[in-house]
Fold this protein.
Amino acid sequence: MEITVTVNGTEYTRDVEPRLLLVHFLRQHLGLTGTHWGCDTSNCGTCVVWFDGKPLKSCTMLAVMAHGHEIRTVEGLARNGQLDPVQQGFIECHGLQCGFCTPGMLMTARALLDTNPDPSEGEIREAISGQLCRCTGYENIVRAVRWAAEHPAGTEVTT
Amino acid sequence: MTVTQERATVGFGRTLRKEDARFVRGKGTYVDDVVLPGMLHGAMLRSPYAHARIVSIDTSQALAHPKVKAVITGETLQGLNLAWMPTLSYDTQAVLATDKVRFQGQEVAFVIAEDHYSARDAVELIEVEYEPLPAVVDAKRALDPDTPVIRDDKEEQTTNRIFDWEAGDRAETDEVFARADVVVAQDMLYPRVHPSPLETCGAVAHMEPATGKLTVWTTTQAPHAHRTVYALVAGLPEHKIRIIAPDIGGGFGNKVGIYPGYVCAIVGSIVTGAPVKWVEDRAEHLMSTAFARDYHMRGEIAATRDGKILGLRVNVIADHGAFNATAQPSKFPAGFFHVFTGSYDLQAAHCKVTGVYTNKAPGGVAYACSFRITEAVYLVERMVDLLARELDVDPAQLRMQNLLRAEQFPYTTPTGWEYDSGDYPKTLQLALEMAGYDELRAEQRRRRERIAAGEKLPEMGIGVSFFTEAVGAGPRKHMDILGLGMADGAELRIHPTGKAVLRISVQTQGQGHETTFAQIVGNELGLPTEDIEVVHGDTDQTPFGLGTYGSRSTPVSGAATAVVARKVRERARIVAAAMLEVSPDDLEWDAGGWQVRGDPDQRKTIQEIALAAHSNLELPEGVEGHLDATTVYNPPNLTYPFGAYVCVVDVDTETGQVKVRRFIAVDDCGVRINPMVVEGQIHGGLADGIGMALMQVMAFDQDGNHLAANFMDYLLPTAMECPSWELGETVTPSPHHPIGAKGVGESATVGSPAAVVNAVLDALAPYGGRHADMPLTPAAVWLARQGRPLRTDLAIE
């Protein structure tokens, strides 16, 4: 089937199998390997992307279902070379170790802050509760999101 | 990189990680991100039975699939003498089954196709006829006379016994027990758990036909060991094998061993002449890769009536699964379990461990365990709590009474370990103060009075644990993996402009080596962290070493790094002396440069010296020039990090729900290179402890069917189960480590489960239950409250 999907602002048209998962479309067909695959059962959340502005586990959706919709992935989080404050917060607060859950966590964190710019610790924990991290014990992820909430413009200097 | 908080630019201290720039952009390169031109995709057919004879395998339909390039079976591999491979414990393991399958999920056939989906389709087209056999599931019955022999492929194997192993002095221990006032005994299971890094295992193998060079990108924590094993097994010349561990999405010991899928990807590339990628799915990962624990333990503790602990006696049945594929030093089939005397001053101790085969996946040493120390610490810390209950004394006070004192170090334990340094009472005291221990006990008393008066409130429990780790394996005369000594190399190059490249044999799976190892070099040479590139995870670019596990990176390769940097510093001294036209003996090192003693104006910085070392400066006869150096570090002893943990829980006795209210962790891992990274390591380990204590277990039914093969059944802790961790530290440097560091990667995983379990059982004390096995799920807690302990690992009843 031919589908057209807008990913990080760019329109892609591809011929795909109807059974292709969205996560595999992003990774294998578009080469956007920042979105990870981790569990098959929608438990781990390493595959979280935005679907029309809302976080979604991309292993739960077929690529054909994304036809005509907008996807945003971790590769589209920085704007004009400027890291998003959540990306900066994860660096500042050591919110990542192996980095495998990080893209999904970042997408959820950005979505949380867009709707709730000043979330409590409990609200942050609830927001990421559908995602697993095996390295950080979550503490520094929570701090990283708080950092981003407290620095809505990020910082001036970025790489 | 963004800089907004205090940041050490040279040497030790809180430094933001170099790795993060790529990870937050989604630009990491994990194995599944590797794409090569013409790459094919592999998929594995696995056994649906735990124990069955293979009657026939028909691959014809799979081969007829238009996108399939090859199907490999055990028969194919037999022709290459590769159907069996050695494990890291001198056993053998089937790469693809030929005679029998011995656990559910065992590898049977490997399909190679043009794409990932077609490979999996074709797996479904293979027809295998099995003749099911009775499965051996309960390790405690594996040695019963009527039990089927799992390893009938081995002529000498007439039972399911793998080994019997003892440590300590049995007679002396029996004597101590005979004269003790109090003896407490308890059976306990440390259930089978799985580390479950979020990235599953996989490999991309590429045998380049033109050069005969095999390159394997693979999820490995030990690339050099893998290279040597592949060379020995496959008969490939070792210099023609390059193992690359790219970014690794968590390891936790799960990625130390060699899995059949890796071998099949390599064979697949040789057979097809194209690169082959194989990445397992989550169910495959949970069912077939290295599990941890599965220790059925009976502990006995002996003490005087006034609370002096005298001795410990332990018997263990260790479930190793169908192949003995643990990864531990050859002399120690039960790993370092014989540190089970823990942090206490005992007169005698003895343990006996019997390893058995069962129809379950192989593995056994994984999941941040420091070679079975997790089991050992859990055992002793439960036994001390049970003794406190028996003596009706406070468990923290009983520990304080029996902890080793600072003046006893170096201390030789009854089972032969020489603890390097410690001040245990100070660390426990700090943890109790941070917790507000006395006030917590007062609150608990008030709570119990209110519950006794009829109020519906959760019970409150307070658990304490104290652990001593033994990490940094290890001295090569005692420790090896499959005959490979556990010493690590390091190479340091200083470029003419004073920038450095460090090459190390260990690599990061999230620990942050690219940052912390640069800090070690910076600390020795005064170079800014950002001027030092750390190269790791590629056998063609790094010196030999045993890899990252057992918390050994900092104790072994960290030491190698400090030593090689000091060699560079000494080479720089000779060059500086030539530059300043003085004798090297007249120079002293000060913050990044050599200067004339008492005349700091006569000084050359390391950068100036580096340039001069590459210039036409005339050097003394016999001095080579340049500053580069190499070293191999053979640790003189292990290092012994330790810590004191306090856990506070609220237990709903009607639903069995446990809420961890607070967790206080005081760790002493010696000198901290980067406190931010150390604390991150501890946070992760504490979450592991909560997961194992309350949620995780790999359970089986009576036919050996795996009941936890996905994340809906195998429950890992989320942000909701974890409290905000409260950390403290004491610093007791290791006297024999060049920078006094001890390693910390596994400390919290080792120390925390006992604190959680002790807390839950403390909460249940009014109901009389002494012990319940992990995980303390709501059902287990509810039954424990009724005095009916639940066996969590089996669904046989």
